[in-house]
Amino acid sequence: MTGIDRAAANAEAFRRMTAAEPVLVDILPARDVVPGMDRRIVLTSGAPLPWEDYEGGQREGLIGGALYEGWAGTREEAIALFDSGGIAVGACQDHACVGSLAGIYTPSMPVFVVEDRATGRRAYCNMYEGKSRKRLNYGTYDETVHRQLKMVETILAPTLAETVRDIGGVPLKPLMIRALNMGDELHSRNTAASLMFARELTPGFLRLFSKLGSHVEKTVELLTEDHYFFLRLSMAAAKVSADLAHGVEGASIVTAMAFSCREFSIRVSGLDGWIRGPHASVEAKLFDGHDASEITWMGGESPITETIGLGGFAQGGAPTLQAYQGGSYAAMMARNETLYDIVEGENPDYKIAAFGYRGTPTGIDLFKVLKTGILPVMDIGIAGKGGGQIGAGVVSAPMDCFRQAAELYAARYGD
Amino acid sequence: MTGIDRAAANAEAFRRMTAAEPVLVDILPARDVVPGMDRRIVLTSGAPLPWEDYEGGQREGLIGGALYEGWAGTREEAIALFDSGGIAVGACQDHACVGSLAGIYTPSMPVFVVEDRATGRRAYCNMYEGKSRKRLNYGTYDETVHRQLKMVETILAPTLAETVRDIGGVPLKPLMIRALNMGDELHSRNTAASLMFARELTPGFLRLFSKLGSHVEKTVELLTEDHYFFLRLSMAAAKVSADLAHGVEGASIVTAMAFSCREFSIRVSGLDGWIRGPHASVEAKLFDGHDASEITWMGGESPITETIGLGGFAQGGAPTLQAYQGGSYAAMMARNETLYDIVEGENPDYKIAAFGYRGTPTGIDLFKVLKTGILPVMDIGIAGKGGGQIGAGVVSAPMDCFRQAAELYAARYGD
Fold it and tell me: Which residues form the signal peptide (chains A, B) (predicted)?
């Protein structure tokens, strides 16, 4: 096909991505709101794979999801049900969801319902399990994980849901804009955003306290106990923003980046489906008592945040990450600067004070990646082979995905 | 006198200053808790002056204080009472208080009671009047200012007081340490600290809501409406820290820096009284519609924060200040770095992530200032001749104070 104006298509994808106004409108069980979740299905991160290809922690997470739903009494029964198709496996992003690490979604799990104000388009993300390093999304399922998930389902989510409805929803972009100037990059650090989110809900918490009592106190505690609560809101906001930019004919802008246990994949606005490549090497800082031999891949779609100019694309706003994921602030700033060479533009809303309020580099153009050789970077949590989180780090997308994408683009649109 | 070990004395002053553990224990009317305030007295910022020497906004602030207390019905009556000694004028720091801008304290005004845990030593600071640019501490007194002060006295302070007692006090240092990594320098920016303070009080707010109702909602709003609420807590924490370091025989460490309408003054640990010098020039960024001809001095003791390693000594932690007080982040970082040459040491608690978690430069040594020619810098609000805040900026202490201090030191301790 000829006559495609790639520059105009990319400008339009960028415009749609940055025009998004994500609002948290509700929190509901996935089965009641996520398309295709009212059946025996477990969603997981990454481009879809056949059940038998999931391995390690991601497979354990799927099994844990089945056990959590009570569809099987034992690990073996759960495996048999997956083998027979009695339980389906789905890819999060095929259901407008986005998965943190293994990204396990089951029908009874509560999800944030985030809606773009102008278009009504929705994205969903399930909720942070808490600061324990053992979590289902890190491939672990035991009594502790079960208890924590039940607490999220029966205390945190209903309390938050009632509060969010009471105050009429929470526009997320204003909080995210401010958080970037308060030490967050909204992927591996969400401390300020979580505090501001709790602050936004406070009038509702006060009104509901006489009815909900200690559940409100517990909820406030969970919202602000560490650096991660807001991440799931940042992810849902990023997902709806990226989805709005997807499907622009001729656009070479990346609209999703995701890991499974097997591979790294990207989506591109003007192309169909996932473009799959190998994993890449990671620069990690591990918690005490762990070493590099334990590092494993079990999925991860939180790089949806990098796709819209946050996370690794906003490291200049988050100097404390050096203590968590390694590296120096000078190196983080320098790396952040280089990313302007591979994007469509500077974000009109998400800005970094340390860069003189320059907008974050936003809208990865696969052709600029190929031309410069500069790879998108992502701030990620690191999972261990034994399950659980063992550290954090920075990972670069593999060049192979972008080479394949360019070939697909040429095949579809001509050179 | 010979035999003074200045190095050991300075190390001891630094140790005392940095060992402080300030805790907010209560909020009470000044008359009930501040020494010498149970009479007709108005406290104001800076080394003490005779009443007739106060001019401009600082004089207007004192008059406003008398009117606020109802000691006079008109401006003229108030002036006559100050003239006759029927109302006394005091210096904030002679009463363990510390004044923001004009620093007007009257007996009925509520003050934060901040106590050092180990020693029981206390410092006090009155409360932020709110985001209106017209405020008594900026030399304005009218119906709006009166209403705002009454709201602070009758709604904000009692609600906060009851909440603080309910939760058993609030240790301030942990909040301040975290705030420095969330964009605050705890003088001209206190956004994160104010949010965290509101978060600390939330369990109390919830428990007291059924009793106090809308006063709680109003209080939460006032705590987080702009960037300044926590400043008065930062100032009280700094005051108690600096006071602990004062009075170490032979120490040449600065323990207070303060403006009045007439002059800039410092206190030094091993010397008595205030050492007075001229004002210095300011690099200001003014709000729209104002120009440099309007800038005036009407006092200010918030540089107590710089005295203990915050504010201008922690600019590297607060990149957004460029938008408020001018300059670039690169210039702020460079200036912050130079201040290590004039201090006793690096703060063991207050650290800057952007400097690789280096402690802030803390404990200004007057001899290092003289030797290097590097002047302490302070982040300040700028008052206008017509009253009210017209901008913000960075000011350098005048060298003359340090020259005089060195002469006094030599006279007392020998060369």
Answer: none
Give the whole-number percent of chain A exceeding pLDDT 90.
94
Give pLDDT, residue A2: 58
Sign of the C-alpha dihedral, residues A153, A159, A165, A171?
negative
At B73-95, the pLDDT tens digits run 999 999 999 999 999 999 999 99
Among B175, B185, B202, the strongest candidate for a mutation testing the A interface, having the largest count of A CBs within 10 A, is B202
The CATH classification of domain B6-233, taken from the options 2.60.120.40, 3.90.1710.10, 1.20.1440.230, 3.40.50.150: 3.90.1710.10
- Residues ≥6 apart with Cβ < 8 Å to A213: none
Positions of CATH 3.90.1710.10 in chain B: 6-233
- Interface pTM, i.e. ipTM: 0.94
> What is the per-residue pLDDT across B355-400, written as a single tens digit (0 to 9) for each?
999 999 999 999 999 999 999 999 999 999 988 899 999 999 999 9
Whether the pTM exceeds 0.90: the reply is: yes
Q: Looking at the domain B251-413, which fold is it?
A: v583 fold (3.90.1700)
Q: Which residues contact B339 (CB under 8 A, 6 or more apart)?
A: B312, B313, B361, B374, B376, B377
Region of residue A211 (left: phi > 0; alpha: psi -120 to 50; beta: else): alpha
Quickly state the pLDDT bin for B327 (edges 50, 70, 90).
confident
Q: Which of B167, B206, B218 is closest to A209 using CA atoms?
A: B206
Does the pLDDT of residue A214 top 80, yes or no? yes
Q: Dihedrals φ, ψ of A378, to 5°?
A: -135, 135
Contact pairs from chain A to chain B, CB under 8 Å: 86
pLDDT at A46 over 80: yes
The answer to whether A210 contacts B205, with C-beta atoms less than 8 Å apart, is no
How many of the other CB atoms lie within 10 Å of CB of B213? 12
Architecture of domain A250-413: Alpha-Beta Complex (3.90)
Give pLDDT, residue B2: 58
pLDDT higher than 90, residue A26 = yes
Spacing of C-alpha B108 from chain mean position: 20
Cβ proximity of A381 and A137 under 8 Å: no
Dihedral angle of Cα B360, B363, B366, B370, to the nearest 10 degrees: -20
Nearest to B206 among A195, A217, A354 (CB): A217
What gap in Å lies between CA B197 and CA B195, rounded to an integer? Answer: 5
Which chain B residues are Cβ-neighbours of A355 within 8 angstroms? 329
